[in-house]
Design goal:
The chain is an alpha/beta fold and 296 residues long. Helices cover 43% and strands 15% of the residues.
């Protein structure tokens, strides 16, 4: 798949509500909920590293909801929010050991609060980008207890390669160098560029050095591979940019082959000419939404 600059439709009119979750005893986190008319289910969306919730993610959520007919639920990642609240010490300790379980459970506590008001959870899709792929995969057993999961969709999974933190950072920097080419694909679409400019005026997420280290330890493992090895999946879509350093080709191919051996159907998509940040290209978001989710 290559970027189709003409793929962007008119601005979707699905309303997106932004609010702050404050579960008892926990730090606040922001959430976006995009609710289409005649909602037929829910799409739980786990974002990538360093993702502020503002006009840019609101535009993505509105498009996802508009095309799929699903209510889109997106929370900030615990430890990486505009509030700058740290990851709880016990959770951080697990993460420094490369374990994601308690971090995912913490994230699910917030999502569960939102889901109390979401209609029709009997049809569920799960979407993860980058760091969010790991959270999405680990969350599957709990999400499945809320309603049947029709599909898992993983865009640029990172935790499929065992590497040290220096290599992880080197790969991250290499991919950041490819960001200008990704952002250039948004040019020529006024409402998309307005959302990007508006986002630059919003507060960024904040996180501590020790929490950054903990997140890095989780991403430097093959944890996602292990999670999916035992998962009961009806369908799984995989997406990788062919210039990506963080999502390495041979490990992506290994994941794809493992799912095929397990009899899990779903498209495997390679995006030509883009790297890890392909999810910041709105034309590509549009194309991938159709390829992964529109027919479901």
């Amino acid at each position: 798949m290559s970027v189709d600059a003409g793929a962007v439709p008119a601005r979707p009119q699905v309303p997106v509500r932004q609010s702050t979750l404050r579960p008892p005893g926990l730090a606040p986190l922001d959430v976006l909920v995009a609710t289409p008319p005649d909602c037929r289910g829910v799409l739980v969306y786990f974002p990538g590293f360093n993702t502020p919730l503002g006009p840019w993610e609101m535009a993505k959520c509105a498009h996802l909801a508009d095309v799929t007919g699903l209510t889109v639920v997106l929370t900030e990642i615990p430890g990486m929010s505009r509030f700058g609240a740290p990851i709880p010490k016990a959770v951080r300790k697990d993460m420094l050991g490369g374990r994601i379980d308690s971090w995912t459970d913490l994230n699910l506590t917030y999502i569960a609060e939102v889901m109390q008001d979401v209609a029709n959870p009997h049809f569920m899709q799960v979407l993860g980008y980058s760091t969010g792929c790991s959270l999405a995969a680990r969350a599957l057993p709990v999400l499945a207890s809320w309603g049947p999961i029709e599909g898992l969709n993983l865009v640029e999974p990172v935790a499929i390669t065992h590497r040290n933190l220096a290599s992880l950072q080197a790969h991250n920097l290499a991919d950041l160098g490819r960001m200008p080419a990704v952002l250039a694909t948004n040019e020529g679409h006024d409402w998309v560029m307005t959302a990007r400019r508006s986002q630059r005026r919003e507060p960024s997420v904040r996180y501590s050095a020790v929490d950054l280290l903990a997140i890095g330890q989780v991403l430097a493992t093959e944890g996602l591979m292990r999670e999916l090895a035992g998962a009961d999946l009806a369908r799984c879509a995989l997406v990788r940019g062919d210039r990506s350093s963080l999502c390495r080709q041979r490990d992506f191919d290994s994941l794809d082959a493992a799912l095929a051996r397990s009899g899990v159907p779903g498209p495997t998509i390679t995006v030509r000419g883009l790297g890890h940040q392909l999810w910041h290209s709105f034309p590509m978001v549009v194309q991938l939404t159709t390829a992964m989710l529109a027919a479901e």
